[in-house]
């Protein structure tokens, strides 16, 4: 019995160690996706940001509406940039990678500047990314909430 438990424990340890490269790759995929998203947002580049979304992406900006499709996503973000939104951050709370799908829950922050006054916002975002046939990861669904400005 003890020998069987030791073998089972060794198998479990081996499985844990063997899974580490996959976990590291998952972290890299998610880190790269979030870094690219923040970079495009903080440059105010709606086209580059839109390219990170699937052609049929569905986005809900937490106001009871949905935006569907890459073109409307670009238009939405252009409106935010025109209103002075920049300095976006993403801090992942949890994430799960299952095959060609990643979903994450994260805290976000952003600053809106208008007439020299900066207003910080924050909230929580839920995002789903899928890996396309071209090997690129794109957002297919996203929704967020926002706390009242401080």
Automatic annotation (TrEMBL):
This is SnoaL-like domain protein. The keyword Glycosyltransferase does not apply. It comes from Caballeronia pedi. Keywords: Signal. Residues 1-24 form the signal peptide. Residues 34-138 form the DUF4440 domain.
């Amino acid at each position: 019995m003890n020998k069987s438990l030791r073998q089972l424990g060794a198998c479990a340890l081996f499985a844990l160690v063997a899974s580490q490269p996959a976990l590291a790759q998952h972290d890299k995929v998610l880190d790269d996706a979030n870094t690219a998203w923040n970079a495009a947002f903080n440059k105010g580049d709606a086209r580059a940001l839109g390219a990170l979304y699937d052609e049929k992406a569905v986005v809900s900006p937490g106001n009871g509406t949905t935006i569907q499709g890459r073109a409307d996503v670009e238009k939405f973000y252009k409106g935010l940039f025109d209103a002075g939104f920049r300095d976006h951050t993403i801090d992942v709370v949890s994430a799960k990678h299952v095959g060609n799908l990643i979903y994450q829950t994260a805290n976000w922050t952003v600053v809106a500047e208008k007439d020299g006054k900066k207003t910080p916002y924050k909230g929580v975002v839920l995002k789903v990314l899928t890996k396309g046939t071209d090997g690129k990861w794109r957002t297919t669904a996203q929704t967020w909430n926002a706390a009242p400005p401080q």
